Amino acid sequence: MSQSPRLEVRNLSVRYQTRGGEVHAVNQVSFDVFPNEVFGIAGESGCGKSTLIRALMRLLPENGVSDADLIQYEGQSLDRMSEKKFREQVLWSKIALVPQSAMNSLNPVYRVGDQIIEAIRNHTSQEKHEARSRVEELFDVVGLESDLMDSYPHEFSGGMRQRAMI
Questions:
Q1: Residue 134: inside a domain, yes or no?
Q2: Global pTM?
């Protein structure tokens, strides 16, 4: 029995309205991502990689418009889901973005662990001690020692910051 894709995208297109006219950034992209599969998007600077991800996450700027025949996650149609439901049930909990420049995503004056605990608490009903335990587990999964939770972003290497953001 073959596995169903976790994420299915069919004919996703994105265009931007600019002063100079309409710019097509992504043109009818289709792909499937299966459970436990590593999936990468590669291309030259400006080819639409970030736009594609932002369209899937509904994070396009106001002048961006996307349309697709199908965007489905675990059998659930994301393109037909209300904005409220998408933000509550999918965004950052099921589909998230780890920026290449993770240093810019972490507040330099707060400890890394505290920032991640806060993010977990903002998206779940976990108490602080539960969220802290979860961060310890997650640090272990990505190969970071749990005592690093008390460090500041500048004390992490670039790779460590990216793993913390995962």
A1: yes
A2: 0.67
